[in-house]
Amino acid sequence: MPLKLDLSEFEVLRDTQKCIECEVCVRQCSNDVHEFDTDDSRVYSDSIKCVGCHRCESLCPTGAIKIKKKDPEFKENYNWSITHLKNIYKQSDAGGVILTGMGSDRPNTVYWDKILLNASQVTNPSIDPLREPMEIKTFIGRKPDMLEIEKGDTGYRIKSQMTPQLELSTPVLFSAMSYGSISLNACRSLAAAAAEYGIFYNTGEGGLHRDLRKYADCTIVQVASGRFGVSRDYLENAAAIEIKIGQGAKPGIGGHLPGEKVTGDISSTRMIPEGTDAISPAPHHDIYSIEDLAQLIYALKEATDYSKPVGVKVSAVHNIAPIASGIVRAGADFVAIDGFRGGTGAAPQVIRDNVGIPIELALASVDTRLREEGIRHKASIIVAGSIRSSSDAVKAIALGADAVYIATAALVAMGCHLCQKCYTGKCNWGIATQDPYLTKRLNPEIGTRRLLNLLRAWSLEIKEILGGAGINAVESLRGNREQLRGFGLSERELSILGIKHAGEAW
Amino acid sequence: MENLSLYNKNSYCCGTKKSDYPGYRIPSGCAVFGVINESGKLFNGRMILEAISMMHDRSNGLGGGFAAYGIYPDYADDWAFHIFYDDNLSRIQTEEILNSNFKIVYREEIPTKRTAAIYNPPLIYRYFLRLKDIQDLYDRNMPSGNFSHDDFIVNFVMRINYESNGAFIISSGKNMGIFKGVGFPEEIGEYFKIDQYKGYLWTSHGRFPTNSVGWWGGAHPFGLIGWSVVHNGEISSYGRNLRFVASLGYTCSLSTDTEVITYLFDLLVRKKNIDIELINMILAAPMWDRIEQIEDQEEKKLLKTLRIVYGGALINGPFSIIVGNKSYMYALNDRIKLRPMVAARKDDLLFVSSEECAIRKVCSSPDKVWHPDGGEPVIGIVKVMEKETEKGKVRKTEKETAEGMVKPMGKGRQD
User: How many angstroms separate the CA atoms of A54 and A67, rounded?
Assistant: First the structure.
């Protein structure tokens, strides 16, 4: 149908003067954009298939290729945006739900960008992180109401039994990405980087591949509604367990791994037939209420002899504050909250772009609610849903988070260009694919190194910010909203965030 | 308010009354001084007045004050309240509330000396109070069963200070009192005639706030039940500490660092039952690097656990504080020592001060002078309490603590 001609998002521009017909682009593109015409001895490109991943452009040895955004040819219309038109064409063509990948790309308010940080001047000194200790070690887990301390002949001694804690060298963890949604090489990179840096990575709901068991000490395993790969062995090869109730990109619906990505190894890791769509049920069918969640939390704690923290991941929805309070009261050792802009490997676009609330507001109201109820210490809060930089992480911690989960940022570090086509299984960067021809493009050693660099860079930046604010331990930043000021926000937004407007003193 | 510009000598456009308090936080630099007689012998307030006036340049006339322990031996078992009132109306209203909760054993306006330096002071009264029907209070206030008199007083003081318009309770302990106001500390000392009181523990403060708010209640020391805190610094963890104490039931009405530090002490020592000797491991916790190097596994576990559990009570940024309590004086610096503090000993006396000159002024040849490290506390403990009666007779009373040890103020303790 001729309508399709107008659907191409990108234009492949090839400088024929520079092109040496080496066919690198042909081999690199899994979407078959480039084709070598043997008759002409020339490479031709079919822009309509281009997803904008920039793989060919990055690898072209002569710099002959340029991928450009294609200007829409439709008459300009604010209401009927190009996205709406394209969606309708697609849906009237195929009659299905539009799938997409990664976090929402809609131009909604990003509150991180409307919040500014503080620094010390005169009345208290800033601290130089290059010369003074700057502590960002973080502990995730339930803290007791009361510590019993005994004074003996040799000194003081803790009598209370401490609940299990995860010790993080920096307040950042790799968020849930399943083996299946991403390649084993990507999983290896995440696990190895987490192990080396002293943080944790999360298996997502894809089970635990046998090669990753050696990283058990830095693994958070997920128990989701599909229960993929959940076994005794799975729970034992982990430092913590996370019950996944929801995901920011798709609140209210279950995980979705297209059959294209369910290859042999994945089918055995997940314990499902090869080539079938792995669709988790929307709810856990044994959790229809909060008391059921409490049962699952304690079932998992019993199964692991109370030796590891059990947390619950939920997406940020309107009622998030009481929900989080219920989760804490149900016995969770940490609550992971995934915001509206959170990423995904595959989600219906309509859900991703319309359901849930931004993580900044969710975090602020959860932290406040838990404090009001006097139960904030009973669980750690980990936030996710588009932490793009160290400053986002610092702002999240100052709003009240114990640590942040990053996933998209980690993928970008490994080469992701956010083309949002993860669900096709054709990731040219070898990340969100299971095609062996593509997955080998990601060398896990290089992936690990790049992730380590990212963690190191963010940690250094966090220390710089802390030092500038005259703070030398991250626990003094946690919930320290005096360090934050909003700008360009309404009274209501400021009051939900619990921060003052820029220009207001203490 | 017609004489607004008259009463504030620095001509700032702020009042001195509670109703004028702007409700925001005021950072300040300061002078602090504390002295304790560890044998519990009482001594005159003249000493501390002389000492603090040596550090005149560390304050700017916008706040000074004193805390004194052992000054009300005749009412040693009654709650001694010092209250600032904006006017007589707020006094009458507050006294009604006092009457319904306490038996007022004695009440008077605190005697003061009119001086040129002190402008437009509030009405300042002191009360000696006995709690009324305990069982009734128990039923009404603390159905959970964790009731103690201290808890009741803490709640009562916070309620008055937070909700009442013109009244502010500045001290609420037993056999102790806080005297403070807007002015240089030596002027405040003269105004309250503190040379006419005798105590075994004195602390003092001279204030240098970085803005013009000259409200009397905002001066130091800050007091709550038996606690008094003087503080030099501006803590960068304020927002964090505030949320930590607020989630455990403390209302910060003043937005001052001193207030939040006082609540931290009350919370950790009285409610969480943590020995005072361990408090520095929380408020100025050792660095993780140091904890990792500790060989004794029990000690390592202790320090690590304290940091994990009470991270919200870590005070970050510069501070040097002197905390008074009926049994001890406790001084502490932030963990990287961003504010000055020096300590000295002479016989039974233990001094701590922002500057050594202040100590030398009142004790020219101390036995020992030292500069405590950041996070290293200086603790002076009253081993024997002395009681001075009205007739000037002196007799030793109860042995307050075991030899050299602090008796923890335990849960459920009924004072």
Answer: 7
Closest among B95, B92, B88, B125 to B110, alpha carbons compared? B125
Say whether B240 and A478 touch across the interface (CB within 8 A): yes
Instruction: Give chain B positions within 8 Å (CB) of A132.
Output: 336
pTM to 2 decimal places: 0.90
Scanning B322-341 for CB atoms below 8 A from A yields 335-336, 338
Q: Which residues contact A189 (CB under 8 A, 6 or more apart)?
A: A414, A442, A444, A446, A447, A448, A450, A451
Nearest to A335 by CA among A311, A360, A356: A311
Is residue A367 within 8 A of residue A400, CB to CB? The reply is: yes
pLDDT tens sequence across A203-249 = 999 899 999 999 999 999 999 999 999 999 999 999 999 999 999 99
How many whole angstroms separate alpha carbon A504 and alpha carbon B326?
Answer: 39
Answer yes or no: do B314 and A157 touch at CB < 8 A.
Answer: no
DSSP state of A397: H
Residues of B annotated as catalytic are: 30
B331 close to B34: Cβ distance less than 8 angstroms: yes
pLDDT in the model for residue B214:
67
Last residue of a domain, one of A45, A63, A96: A96
CB A340, CB A248: distance < 8 Å:
yes
Phi, psi for A249 (deg, rounded to 5): -75, -20
B111 burial class (0-12, 13-18, 19+ CB within 10 angstroms)?
Answer: exposed
The answer to whether position A155 is within a domain reads no
Indicate yes or no: CB of A376 within 8 angstroms of CB of B247. Answer: yes
pLDDT in tens, B28-68: 678 999 999 999 999 999 999 999 999 999 988 888 999 99
Burial of A442: CB neighbours in 10 Å, binned 0-12, 13-18, 19+: buried
CA atoms of B249 and A108, how far apart (whole Å): 37
Measured CA to CA, the distance from residue A289 to residue A329 in angstroms comes to 13
> What is the domain-level CATH number for residue A205?
3.20.20.70
Name the CATH architecture for the domain at B16-239+320-389.
4-Layer Sandwich (3.60)
Residue A145 lies in a domain: no
A313 touches B at CB < 8 Å: no
| Distance between start and end Cα atoms, chain A | 63
| N- to C-terminal Cα separation, chain B | 43
Q: Chain B partners of A125 at a C-beta cutoff of 8 Å? A: 318, 338
Q: How far apart, in whole angstroms, are the C-alpha atoms of residue A441 and residue A429? A: 6
ipTM, 2 dp? 0.88
Q: What are phi and psi of A312, to 5 degrees?
A: -130, 130
Phi, psi values for residue A242, rounded to 5°: -125, 125
Contact A124 B317 (CB under 8 A): yes
Domain that holds residue A59: 2-96
Last residue of a domain, one of A65, A96, A127: A96
Residues of chain A positioned with their CB less than 8 A from the CB of B298: 154-155, 157-158
